[in-house]
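RECORD TYPE: inverse folding
INPUT: structure tokens
STRUCTURE:
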């Protein structure tokens, strides 16, 4: 059985929305205030797990990624482009925009329950998908790259009113960010 792994950039106050500023929010762009180094390559420490599973996106995140990743070069870009990608959407996608992409047929929660029987599911960004999976008690692991920034506004990674307990399995401080891996307790 695979794990459902959420990877996300977040702030000290728990905000995970608009890290790149594309959302046009007043707090957006916080993940790039220290340059691109903290957000490049495998900052989430997935290693081979990135290649063995499937990436799950919400439509908006997938559309943003589909605009930039197909033209990127380097080992990490090759891996991002090669991995199977599933998109939770009610409106469909242009799957040709990013190779190995497909829209989920039906409900994302039902899809995730079936898919995790065979492989890991790595959820990238996509707060609506993260919140739905957490509400269904399906998230096994969070891999968070935390930035030393307090935005004071924005959408939190963890939805209000949903208590949960985790255990730290790895904490790795970097020059600008800290990688924290949490498993369900």
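DESIGNED SEQUENCE:
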């Amino acid at each position: 059985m695979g794990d459902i792994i959420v990877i996300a950039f977040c702030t000290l106050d728990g905000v995970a929305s608009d890290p790149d500023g594309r959302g046009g929010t007043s707090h957006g762009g916080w993940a790039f205030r220290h340059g691109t180094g903290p957000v490049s390559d495998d900052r989430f420490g997935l290693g081979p797990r990135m290649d063995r599973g499937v990436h799950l996106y919400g439509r908006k995140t997938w559309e943003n990624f589909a605009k930039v990743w197909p033209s990127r070069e380097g080992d990490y870009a090759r891996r991002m482009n090669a991995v199977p990608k599933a998109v939770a959407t009610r409106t469909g996608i242009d799957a040709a925009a990013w190779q190995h992409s497909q829209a989920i047929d039906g409900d994302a929660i039902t899809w995730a329950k079936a898919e995790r029987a065979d492989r890991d599911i790595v959820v990238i960004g996509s707060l609506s998908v993260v919140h739905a999976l957490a509400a269904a008690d399906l998230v096994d692991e969070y891999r968070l790259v935390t930035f030393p920034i307090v935005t004071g506004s924005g959408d939190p990674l963890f939805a209000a009113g949903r208590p949960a307990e985790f255990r730290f399995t790895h904490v790795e401080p970097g020059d600008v960010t800290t990688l924290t891996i949490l498993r369900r307790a």
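NOTES: The longest helix spans residues 59-68.
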